[in-house]
Amino acid sequence: MILVANNLTKVIGKRTIVDHVSFSLDAGEVFGFLGPNGAGKTTTIRMLVGLIKPTEGSVTICGFDVRRQFEQAMRNIGCIVENPDLYRFMTGRENLEHFARMLGVPREEIERVAELVSLAHRLDQRVGTYSLGMRQRLGIAQAMLGSPKLLILDEPANGLDPAGIREIRELLRTLAHERQMAIFVSSHLLGEIELMCDRVAIIHKGQLLREGSVNDLISSRREMEFRVGDVARASEIVQSKGLTFRADTDRLWISMDESEAPPLVAAFAENGVPLFHVQRHAETLEEMFLQATGGETVD
Predict the structure, then answer these.
(1) Tens place of pLDDT for every residue, the chain, 299 residues?
(2) Under a CB-based contact definition with an 8 Å cutoff, are residues 6 and 57 in contact?
(3) SS3 of 219, please?
């Protein structure tokens, strides 16, 4: 495993900010970290990169304990938080040269990372002329200097237009799946996380509520959607069969497998309930998130 967080806990005074949170991340994965305001996301990220010490638990990166082997662990991490800290009066190349000197990385690395993020053709232009998406890509290039095994990115698509968001998504998936990097992404864009990530974790009030592959999490809730002409009568029929459901003005979502639908369709027909449409309801990551957190929004 590239990253292992084991029982991470942070207590400040009498308040538990993060409560025994555990997860892991392997090479080639994009891992999404989600949570509402005050859930403990930022505190967890700070513990991952050694900015604050956990009250309990541990973090290992490529086998190195962040507390006991800090320098070795940090050599394997690249990190950006929200908007990258770049010098706009300098060129992209000059920015990367500056950070390469700080890291003791050879200048040849600059061409490599610029090529990876598709910025080689604009490297000698001032960063002040870059679009926000290009600055985000330059920030990712900066984080990749030194060939880290793990990228930790907080809101990498923050402020981007749809084209820029797609650019960053495709870049991160390419880096993970083709370059076998482990990428940890914290974001409030739930639809984008669903498209970008292989696995996600949801933290709420300091505790990890759910963790797993995106497909497993959003398909764990089996529902069929029925659009009907008489919701009240349809609800009575569904209740009589002991099925769990939720209703709206013209439709019901019923917890059942697709194979169980035909008898219910027949029951609606026998009782004169107009039925206009039936389909399997595919839950989105946003719906699953809101259900898990009681409707609280991400920050």
Answers:
(1) 999 999 999 999 999 999 999 999 999 999 999 888 788 888 999 999 999 999 999 999 999 999 999 999 999 999 886 566 788 999 999 999 998 998 888 888 898 899 888 888 999 999 999 988 888 889 888 988 888 999 998 888 777 778 888 888 888 899 899 889 999 998 777 778 888 899 999 888 899 988 888 777 766 557 889 999 999 999 999 999 999 888 989 999 898 888 889 999 999 999 999 999 998 866 667 666 776 676 665 55
(2) yes
(3) helix
Name the pTM for this structure: 0.75
- Please list the residue range(s) of the chain that carry CATH number 3.30.70.80: 222-282
Cα separation, 263 vs 278, in Å, equals 13
Which architecture characterizes domain 3-218 according to CATH? 3-Layer(aba) Sandwich (3.40)
Which one, of 209, 214, 175, 161, lies nearest residue 41 by Cα? 209
Angle ∠(284,20,215) on CA atoms, nearest 5: 20
Nearest 5 degrees, angle CA 48-CA 202-CA 292? 160
Give the angle 201-196-127 at the CA atoms, nearest 5°. Answer: 115
User: What's the token pair of residue 224?
Assistant: 């069929």
3-class state of residue 267 by DSSP: helix
What is 222-282's CATH topology?
Alpha-Beta Plaits (3.30.70)
CA triple 100-102-107, angle to 5 deg: 20
The candidate with the shortest Cα–Cα distance to 103, out of 135, 74, 63, is: 74
CATH 3.40.50.300 maps onto the chain at 3-218
